[in-house]
Amino acid sequence: MATERIVSAQPRDTREEQFNLSLRPETLDAYIGQARLVEKLRIALEAARQRKEPLEHVLLHGPPGLGKTTLANIIATELGTHLSLTSGPALTKPSDLVGTLTRLQPRDVLFIDEIHRLSPVIEEYLYPAIEDFRIDVTVDSGMHARSITLPLQPFTLIGATTRAGLITSAMRSRFGIAHNLEYYQPGELLEILRRNARLLGLEEGGQTSDLERALSLLADRSRGTPRIANRLLRRVRDYAQVRHGGTVNPEVADAALCLEGIDDQGLDELDRRYLRVIAEVYRGGPVGLEAIAATLGEDSGTLEDVVEPFLLQRGMLARTRRGRQLTPHSAKLIGFGDLAERLSGLEDSGAAETGLFDADPDANEHGRSSK
Ligand code: ADE
Protein backbone atom coordinates (compact mmCIF):
# COMPACT_ATOMS: atom_id res chain seq x y z
CA MET A 1 0.00 0.00 0.00
CA ALA A 2 1.81 3.10 -1.15
CA THR A 3 0.45 6.18 0.50
CA GLU A 4 0.04 9.31 -1.62
CA ARG A 5 2.25 11.91 0.07
CA ILE A 6 2.53 15.57 -0.59
CA VAL A 7 6.19 15.46 0.46
CA SER A 8 6.96 12.48 -1.75
CA ALA A 9 9.76 13.45 -4.06
CA GLN A 10 8.26 11.41 -6.91
CA PRO A 11 6.39 13.40 -9.57
CA ARG A 12 2.69 12.77 -9.05
CA ASP A 13 0.77 13.49 -12.20
CA THR A 14 1.05 14.97 -15.65
CA ARG A 15 -0.20 18.38 -14.54
CA GLU A 16 2.44 18.50 -11.89
CA GLU A 17 5.08 17.37 -14.37
CA GLN A 18 4.02 20.19 -16.68
CA PHE A 19 4.09 22.67 -13.84
CA ASN A 20 7.62 21.55 -12.98
CA LEU A 21 8.66 21.60 -16.62
CA SER A 22 7.46 25.15 -17.06
CA LEU A 23 9.58 26.25 -14.08
CA ARG A 24 12.61 24.19 -14.91
CA PRO A 25 15.83 26.14 -15.45
CA GLU A 26 17.16 25.67 -18.96
CA THR A 27 20.77 26.75 -18.56
CA LEU A 28 23.50 26.22 -15.97
CA ASP A 29 23.38 29.94 -15.21
CA ALA A 30 19.73 29.64 -14.15
CA TYR A 31 20.40 26.52 -12.07
CA ILE A 32 20.53 27.13 -8.34
CA GLY A 33 22.50 24.93 -5.90
CA GLN A 34 24.78 21.86 -6.37
CA ALA A 35 27.65 24.33 -6.83
CA ARG A 36 30.45 21.75 -7.07
CA LEU A 37 28.63 19.70 -9.69
CA VAL A 38 27.72 22.80 -11.70
CA GLU A 39 31.37 23.85 -11.70
CA LYS A 40 32.53 20.38 -12.81
CA LEU A 41 29.94 20.39 -15.60
CA ARG A 42 30.91 23.88 -16.78
CA ILE A 43 34.50 22.78 -17.24
CA ALA A 44 33.63 19.44 -18.86
CA LEU A 45 31.12 21.11 -21.22
CA GLU A 46 33.60 23.78 -22.26
CA ALA A 47 36.35 21.21 -22.82
CA ALA A 48 34.02 19.02 -24.90
CA ARG A 49 32.88 22.03 -26.94
CA GLN A 50 36.47 23.08 -27.62
CA ARG A 51 37.44 19.57 -28.72
CA LYS A 52 34.16 19.13 -30.63
CA GLU A 53 33.63 15.87 -28.77
CA PRO A 54 30.62 14.56 -26.88
CA LEU A 55 30.57 15.26 -23.15
CA GLU A 56 31.90 12.39 -21.06
CA HIS A 57 29.27 10.01 -19.69
CA VAL A 58 27.75 11.32 -16.47
CA LEU A 59 26.33 9.37 -13.53
CA LEU A 60 24.07 11.33 -11.17
CA HIS A 61 22.99 9.75 -7.93
CA GLY A 62 21.08 10.93 -4.90
CA PRO A 63 17.57 11.09 -3.47
CA PRO A 64 14.64 11.73 -5.82
CA GLY A 65 13.53 15.27 -6.61
CA LEU A 66 16.95 16.94 -6.51
CA GLY A 67 17.15 17.73 -10.22
CA LYS A 68 18.77 14.83 -12.07
CA THR A 69 16.42 15.07 -15.07
CA THR A 70 16.62 18.87 -14.98
CA LEU A 71 20.40 18.65 -15.22
CA ALA A 72 20.18 16.22 -18.15
CA ASN A 73 17.95 18.73 -19.96
CA ILE A 74 20.35 21.55 -19.19
CA ILE A 75 23.35 19.55 -20.44
CA ALA A 76 21.62 18.84 -23.76
CA THR A 77 20.66 22.52 -24.08
CA GLU A 78 24.19 23.66 -23.26
CA LEU A 79 25.56 21.26 -25.89
CA GLY A 80 22.97 22.46 -28.40
CA THR A 81 21.81 18.87 -28.92
CA HIS A 82 18.78 16.69 -28.20
CA LEU A 83 17.85 14.70 -25.13
CA SER A 84 16.36 11.18 -25.34
CA LEU A 85 14.78 9.94 -22.15
CA THR A 86 14.27 6.36 -21.06
CA SER A 87 14.54 4.32 -17.88
CA GLY A 88 16.01 1.06 -16.64
CA PRO A 89 12.66 -0.71 -16.20
CA ALA A 90 11.44 0.43 -19.67
CA LEU A 91 14.31 -1.39 -21.38
CA THR A 92 13.47 -5.06 -21.22
CA LYS A 93 15.31 -6.42 -24.27
CA PRO A 94 18.20 -5.22 -26.44
CA SER A 95 15.84 -4.41 -29.31
CA ASP A 96 14.23 -1.74 -27.06
CA LEU A 97 17.51 0.13 -27.25
CA VAL A 98 18.39 -0.27 -30.93
CA GLY A 99 15.99 2.38 -32.25
CA THR A 100 16.89 4.89 -29.53
CA LEU A 101 20.62 4.43 -30.03
CA THR A 102 20.62 4.48 -33.82
CA ARG A 103 18.49 7.64 -33.91
CA LEU A 104 20.97 9.62 -31.80
CA GLN A 105 22.63 12.54 -33.58
CA PRO A 106 26.27 13.46 -32.93
CA ARG A 107 26.77 14.64 -29.29
CA ASP A 108 23.14 13.98 -28.35
CA VAL A 109 22.34 13.03 -24.76
CA LEU A 110 20.71 9.75 -23.76
CA PHE A 111 19.23 9.86 -20.26
CA ILE A 112 18.56 6.56 -18.50
CA ASP A 113 16.67 7.03 -15.26
CA GLU A 114 16.79 4.31 -12.59
CA ILE A 115 19.86 2.93 -14.31
CA HIS A 116 20.37 0.52 -11.42
CA ARG A 117 17.32 -1.38 -12.70
CA LEU A 118 18.80 -2.29 -16.08
CA SER A 119 18.89 -6.04 -16.61
CA PRO A 120 22.35 -7.65 -16.91
CA VAL A 121 21.62 -8.43 -20.58
CA ILE A 122 20.85 -4.78 -21.40
CA GLU A 123 23.86 -3.65 -19.43
CA GLU A 124 26.16 -5.89 -21.44
CA TYR A 125 24.53 -4.63 -24.59
CA LEU A 126 25.17 -1.02 -23.61
CA TYR A 127 28.90 -1.37 -22.94
CA PRO A 128 30.13 -1.33 -26.58
CA ALA A 129 27.60 1.44 -27.29
CA ILE A 130 29.00 3.73 -24.62
CA GLU A 131 32.66 2.75 -24.99
CA ASP A 132 33.11 2.43 -28.75
CA PHE A 133 29.83 3.84 -30.11
CA ARG A 134 28.78 0.62 -31.78
CA ILE A 135 26.18 -2.08 -31.22
CA ASP A 136 25.70 -5.59 -32.49
CA VAL A 137 22.32 -6.45 -33.95
CA THR A 138 21.03 -9.78 -35.11
CA VAL A 139 19.50 -9.85 -38.56
CA ASP A 140 17.49 -12.62 -40.17
CA SER A 141 16.40 -15.56 -38.10
CA GLY A 142 16.81 -19.30 -37.76
CA MET A 143 19.71 -20.76 -39.66
CA HIS A 144 20.24 -17.45 -41.53
CA ALA A 145 20.59 -15.41 -38.36
CA ARG A 146 23.79 -13.41 -38.20
CA SER A 147 25.13 -10.56 -36.19
CA ILE A 148 26.20 -7.28 -37.73
CA THR A 149 27.88 -4.33 -36.08
CA LEU A 150 26.20 -0.94 -36.45
CA PRO A 151 28.20 2.22 -35.85
CA LEU A 152 26.56 4.87 -33.63
CA GLN A 153 27.07 8.60 -33.47
CA PRO A 154 29.22 9.68 -30.52
CA PHE A 155 26.81 10.53 -27.70
CA THR A 156 26.70 11.14 -23.95
CA LEU A 157 24.96 8.78 -21.58
CA ILE A 158 23.56 10.33 -18.42
CA GLY A 159 22.62 7.67 -15.90
CA ALA A 160 20.50 8.60 -12.90
CA THR A 161 19.83 6.57 -9.81
CA THR A 162 18.59 6.87 -6.26
CA ARG A 163 20.56 3.69 -5.45
CA ALA A 164 24.21 4.26 -6.28
CA GLY A 165 25.08 1.15 -4.30
CA LEU A 166 23.11 -1.10 -6.64
CA ILE A 167 25.06 -0.12 -9.76
CA THR A 168 27.57 -2.74 -10.81
CA SER A 169 31.19 -1.66 -10.65
CA ALA A 170 31.52 -2.50 -14.37
CA MET A 171 28.82 0.05 -15.16
CA ARG A 172 30.06 2.66 -12.72
CA SER A 173 33.59 2.56 -14.13
CA ARG A 174 32.28 3.61 -17.54
CA PHE A 175 31.22 7.06 -16.38
CA GLY A 176 33.84 9.80 -16.63
CA ILE A 177 31.89 12.02 -14.23
CA ALA A 178 30.00 10.64 -11.23
CA HIS A 179 28.38 12.92 -8.71
CA ASN A 180 26.17 12.57 -5.70
CA LEU A 181 23.47 15.25 -5.57
CA GLU A 182 23.00 16.64 -2.12
CA TYR A 183 19.98 18.02 -0.36
CA TYR A 184 19.60 21.77 -0.90
CA GLN A 185 20.18 24.28 1.85
CA PRO A 186 17.12 26.33 2.90
CA GLY A 187 18.77 29.44 1.39
CA GLU A 188 19.08 27.70 -1.99
CA LEU A 189 15.48 26.49 -1.84
CA LEU A 190 14.39 30.00 -0.99
CA GLU A 191 16.17 31.28 -4.08
CA ILE A 192 14.42 28.64 -6.22
CA LEU A 193 11.07 29.51 -4.65
CA ARG A 194 11.61 33.24 -5.24
CA ARG A 195 12.37 32.57 -8.87
CA ASN A 196 9.35 30.32 -9.30
CA ALA A 197 6.99 32.62 -7.38
CA ARG A 198 8.05 35.37 -9.75
CA LEU A 199 7.45 33.11 -12.77
CA LEU A 200 4.00 32.31 -11.39
CA GLY A 201 3.23 36.00 -10.88
CA LEU A 202 2.91 35.56 -7.12
CA GLU A 203 4.29 38.94 -6.07
CA GLU A 204 1.02 40.63 -6.71
CA GLY A 205 -1.43 40.75 -3.85
CA GLY A 206 0.01 40.92 -0.33
CA GLN A 207 3.15 42.70 0.74
CA THR A 208 6.43 41.54 -0.71
CA SER A 209 7.91 40.92 2.74
CA ASP A 210 4.90 38.75 3.56
CA LEU A 211 5.56 36.70 0.47
CA GLU A 212 9.26 36.50 1.31
CA ARG A 213 8.53 35.19 4.80
CA ALA A 214 6.01 32.71 3.40
CA LEU A 215 8.59 31.43 0.91
CA SER A 216 11.12 31.11 3.71
CA LEU A 217 8.67 28.97 5.64
CA LEU A 218 8.17 26.77 2.56
CA ALA A 219 11.94 26.48 2.07
CA ASP A 220 12.31 25.25 5.67
CA ARG A 221 9.64 22.60 5.19
CA SER A 222 10.66 21.24 1.80
CA ARG A 223 13.11 18.59 3.00
CA GLY A 224 15.95 20.05 1.01
CA THR A 225 14.18 19.05 -2.21
CA PRO A 226 13.23 21.47 -5.03
CA ARG A 227 10.50 19.20 -6.35
CA ILE A 228 8.81 19.28 -2.95
CA ALA A 229 9.33 23.04 -2.65
CA ASN A 230 7.57 23.56 -5.98
CA ARG A 231 4.75 21.24 -4.98
CA LEU A 232 4.20 23.08 -1.71
CA LEU A 233 4.29 26.40 -3.57
CA ARG A 234 1.49 25.12 -5.78
CA ARG A 235 -0.60 24.06 -2.78
CA VAL A 236 -0.06 27.41 -1.08
CA ARG A 237 -0.93 29.29 -4.25
CA ASP A 238 -4.23 27.37 -4.56
CA TYR A 239 -5.06 27.88 -0.90
CA ALA A 240 -4.28 31.60 -1.05
CA GLN A 241 -6.34 32.01 -4.22
CA VAL A 242 -9.41 30.20 -2.91
CA ARG A 243 -9.38 31.33 0.73
CA HIS A 244 -7.46 34.62 0.84
CA GLY A 245 -8.01 36.49 -2.39
CA GLY A 246 -4.57 35.47 -3.63
CA THR A 247 -2.63 36.94 -0.69
CA VAL A 248 0.33 34.80 0.34
CA ASN A 249 1.76 35.39 3.81
CA PRO A 250 3.27 33.09 6.46
CA GLU A 251 -0.09 32.47 8.14
CA VAL A 252 -1.68 31.45 4.84
CA ALA A 253 1.32 29.26 3.97
CA ASP A 254 1.22 27.63 7.40
CA ALA A 255 -2.53 26.97 7.17
CA ALA A 256 -2.14 25.46 3.69
CA LEU A 257 0.64 23.14 4.87
CA CYS A 258 -1.27 22.15 8.00
CA LEU A 259 -4.15 21.14 5.79
CA GLU A 260 -1.69 18.88 3.97
CA GLY A 261 -0.47 17.37 7.26
CA ILE A 262 3.01 18.91 7.03
CA ASP A 263 4.51 20.05 10.31
CA ASP A 264 7.07 22.73 11.08
CA GLN A 265 9.95 20.29 10.44
CA GLY A 266 8.59 19.46 6.97
CA LEU A 267 7.60 15.99 8.19
CA ASP A 268 4.39 14.52 6.82
CA GLU A 269 2.07 11.87 8.18
CA LEU A 270 4.15 8.95 6.85
CA ASP A 271 7.36 10.31 8.39
CA ARG A 272 5.62 10.72 11.72
CA ARG A 273 4.02 7.27 11.52
CA TYR A 274 7.44 5.80 10.69
CA LEU A 275 9.05 7.46 13.72
CA ARG A 276 6.09 6.64 15.97
CA VAL A 277 6.17 2.94 15.05
CA ILE A 278 9.82 2.72 16.06
CA ALA A 279 9.03 4.56 19.30
CA GLU A 280 5.81 2.76 20.23
CA VAL A 281 6.24 -0.74 18.89
CA TYR A 282 10.01 -1.14 19.03
CA ARG A 283 10.85 1.10 22.01
CA GLY A 284 13.07 3.35 19.91
CA GLY A 285 14.87 0.49 18.14
CA PRO A 286 17.14 -0.85 16.92
CA VAL A 287 14.78 -2.58 14.52
CA GLY A 288 15.14 -3.95 10.98
CA LEU A 289 13.65 -2.06 8.03
CA GLU A 290 11.47 -4.98 6.99
CA ALA A 291 9.86 -5.13 10.42
CA ILE A 292 9.05 -1.41 10.29
CA ALA A 293 7.66 -1.76 6.75
CA ALA A 294 5.48 -4.71 7.76
CA THR A 295 4.13 -2.88 10.81
CA LEU A 296 3.33 0.21 8.74
CA GLY A 297 1.95 -1.77 5.79
CA GLU A 298 4.30 0.18 3.50
CA ASP A 299 6.80 -0.86 0.89
CA SER A 300 10.30 -1.07 2.36
CA GLY A 301 11.78 0.39 -0.85
CA THR A 302 9.63 3.52 -0.47
CA LEU A 303 10.73 3.87 3.13
CA GLU A 304 14.37 3.43 2.22
CA ASP A 305 14.37 5.76 -0.81
CA VAL A 306 11.93 8.44 0.24
CA VAL A 307 11.44 8.51 4.00
CA GLU A 308 14.77 7.51 5.52
CA PRO A 309 17.36 9.61 3.64
CA PHE A 310 15.96 12.88 4.92
CA LEU A 311 15.51 11.59 8.48
CA LEU A 312 19.09 10.29 8.46
CA GLN A 313 20.41 13.54 7.08
CA ARG A 314 18.58 15.55 9.73
CA GLY A 315 19.81 13.36 12.58
CA MET A 316 16.31 12.02 13.30
CA LEU A 317 17.31 8.45 12.58
CA ALA A 318 20.43 6.35 13.03
CA ARG A 319 21.34 3.15 11.22
CA THR A 320 23.11 0.88 13.66
CA ARG A 321 24.59 -2.58 13.37
CA ARG A 322 21.33 -3.99 14.67
CA GLY A 323 18.87 -1.87 12.72
CA ARG A 324 17.15 1.52 12.66
CA GLN A 325 17.14 3.54 15.82
CA LEU A 326 15.51 6.80 16.85
CA THR A 327 17.77 9.58 18.05
CA PRO A 328 17.01 11.52 21.24
CA HIS A 329 16.16 14.48 18.98
CA SER A 330 13.47 12.63 16.99
CA ALA A 331 12.03 10.90 20.06
CA LYS A 332 11.55 14.33 21.62
CA LEU A 333 10.08 15.79 18.44
CA ILE A 334 7.31 13.20 18.33
CA GLY A 335 6.55 13.64 22.01
CA PHE A 336 8.40 10.67 23.55
CA GLY A 337 10.38 12.55 26.21
CA ASP A 338 11.13 9.47 28.37
CA LEU A 339 12.44 7.57 25.40
CA ALA A 340 14.57 10.56 24.39
CA GLU A 341 16.17 10.50 27.83
CA ARG A 342 16.82 6.78 27.71
CA LEU A 343 18.38 7.09 24.22
CA SER A 344 20.53 9.97 25.42
CA GLY A 345 21.74 7.81 28.30
CA LEU A 346 22.63 5.01 25.88
CA GLU A 347 24.54 7.43 23.68
CA ASP A 348 26.46 8.78 26.63
CA SER A 349 27.40 5.31 27.78
CA GLY A 350 28.50 4.43 24.24
CA ALA A 351 26.09 1.48 24.15
CA ALA A 352 24.34 2.63 21.00
CA GLU A 353 26.52 1.95 18.03
CA THR A 354 25.01 4.50 15.75
CA GLY A 355 26.62 4.13 12.42
CA LEU A 356 26.86 4.30 8.73
CA PHE A 357 25.56 2.08 5.94
CA ASP A 358 28.23 -0.55 6.39
CA ALA A 359 27.09 -1.03 9.96
CA ASP A 360 23.64 -2.05 8.72
CA PRO A 361 22.69 -5.71 9.14
CA ASP A 362 20.59 -5.71 5.95
CA ALA A 363 23.29 -4.03 3.89
CA ASN A 364 24.72 -5.74 0.83
CA GLU A 365 28.26 -5.21 -0.44
CA HIS A 366 27.28 -1.72 -1.54
CA GLY A 367 25.94 -0.71 1.82
CA ARG A 368 22.29 -0.64 0.78
CA SER A 369 19.68 -2.92 2.19
CA SER A 370 19.05 -5.97 0.08
CA LYS A 371 15.40 -6.49 -0.66
N1 ADE B 1 13.67 24.45 -10.11
C1 ADE B 1 13.85 23.21 -9.65
N2 ADE B 1 15.14 23.00 -9.35
C2 ADE B 1 15.81 24.13 -9.60
C3 ADE B 1 17.17 24.54 -9.47
N3 ADE B 1 18.10 23.73 -9.00
N4 ADE B 1 17.48 25.79 -9.84
C4 ADE B 1 16.52 26.61 -10.31
N5 ADE B 1 15.24 26.29 -10.44
C5 ADE B 1 14.87 25.06 -10.09
Biggest sheet strand order reads 2-3-6-1-7
**Helix amount, in percent?**
40-55%
Q: What do we call the CATH topology of the largest domain?
A: Rossmann fold
- What is the name of the CATH architecture of the largest domain? 3-Layer(aba) Sandwich
Through-space gap between termini: 17 Å
Proportion of beta-strand residues: 5-15%
Describe this structure in words.
- The chain has 371 residues and is α/β, with parallel strands linked by helices.
- It has three domains: 34-180, Rossmann fold; 186-259, Orthogonal Bundle (Helicase, Ruva Protein, domain 3); 269-366, Winged helix-like DNA-binding domain superfamily/Winged helix DNA-binding domain (Arc Repressor Mutant, subunit A, Orthogonal Bundle), CATH 1.10.10.
- 47% of the residues lie in helices and 12% in strands.
- The chain is built from 15 helices and ten strands.
- It has helices at 14-23, 35-51, 68-79, 94-103, 120-132, 169-172, 186-199, 208-220, 226-243, 250-259, 269-280, 289-296, 300-313, 328-333, 337-349; strands spanning 58-61, 83-87, 109-113, 134-139, 146-151, 156-161, 177-180, 317-320, 323-326, 354-355.
- The strands form three sheets. It has a five-stranded parallel beta sheet, with helices on one face.
- Strand 2 (83-87), helix 4 and strand 3 form a beta-alpha-beta unit.
- The chain binds adenine.
